[in-house]
Amino acid sequence: MGILAGIVAFLLIRYGIGAWLSAAGGPLLGPVGQQIGSITAPFAWIVMFACWLAAAVSWANARKRRSLHDTRRDLDSLADISWREFEMLVGESFRRQGYDVLETGLGGKDGGIDLIVSKGGRRELVQCKQWKRRQVGVATVREMWGLVDHHRADAVHIVSVGDFTADAARFTSGKPIHLITGRELLDRIRAAQTGVGRAPAAAPLQPQGPEHAGPAEAPPLCPVCAGAMLQRHNRRSGETFWGCARYPQCKGTKPAAF
Predict the structure, then answer these.
(1) In this structure, are 106 and 127 located in the same domain?
(2) Which pTM was predicted?
(3) Which residues are registered as beta bridge partners of 221?
């Protein structure tokens, strides 16, 4: 899109303005329109190259996000990146779940609104906490909840490498606040990696044989929270089913089709 925008902008500035003045300017502006192309040529080149540079930066950032997402294997790999890279990783995880992601730049190392994600007409706020040895407390959760009305949001997600205090978990009761621990984030990442043909770490072995031939079932989205799902096994019946990666916070399930 950036490359195409640059070409269109160049043609409009270099030729379009002059042609329009020549056609609509009458005897007064007509001669000026014939010369306007040569006058605006340097500006047209600048605009085109600026669009192309923005496209190159966007492509490089998208590639970095994909690399960050597809190379995470354990909790240490979530903690060993910078806070900015952690925000990019979380944003990419939401993209893999079908969300449109806006990196707001309103957060930063100390917190705030890091991402605004949208899907199905819902607008939700995301805060990223790359705290390795500290639990996220209720004060942080209250602060994010207080921003919902101001930003006209439908829900809040707080993502932490570590865990949340009991008070923070209790505060979310009955509210559209989703607390995502590092383990839950890692489960989502692994589920998305499986969906693009990458096997997650410590994945259960699949039965072999002609009756199980064919491609594996792609992970569906949770019918309750629209998040990632993981294959689980019913201990009593032995049946396989899809369970939400956010369990026990979300108890959405789907039957597995074989």
Answers:
(1) yes
(2) 0.60
(3) 228
Same domain, 134 and 105: yes
Read off the amino acid at residue 156: V
What are φ and ψ of residue 178, in 5° steps? -110, 115
Q: What is the pLDDT of residue 33?
A: 55
- Domain of residue 93, residue span: 75-187
Backbone angles phi, psi at 205, to 5 degrees: -70, 140
| 56, 82: one domain | no
Q: Is residue 199 part of a domain?
A: no
C-alpha 129/C-alpha 9 separation (Å) is 41
Output the CA–CA distances (angstroms, integers) from residue 32 to 11, 12, 38, in the order listed. Answer: 18, 16, 11
User: For 155-199, what is each residue's pLDDT tens digit?
Assistant: 999 999 988 999 999 999 999 999 999 999 999 998 888 764 343
Phi-psi region of 214 (alpha: psi -120 to 50; beta: other; left: phi over 0): left
Q: Per-residue pLDDT averaged across 73-100, rounded?
A: 89
Where would I find the H helices in 80-233? 83-96, 138-145, 166-171, 182-195
CATH number at residue 245: 2.20.25
> Does residue 161 fall inside a structural domain?
yes
Alpha-carbon distance of 28 to 38, in angstroms, equals 19
- Amino acid in position 73: R
Residue 198 lies inside a defined structural domain of this protein: no
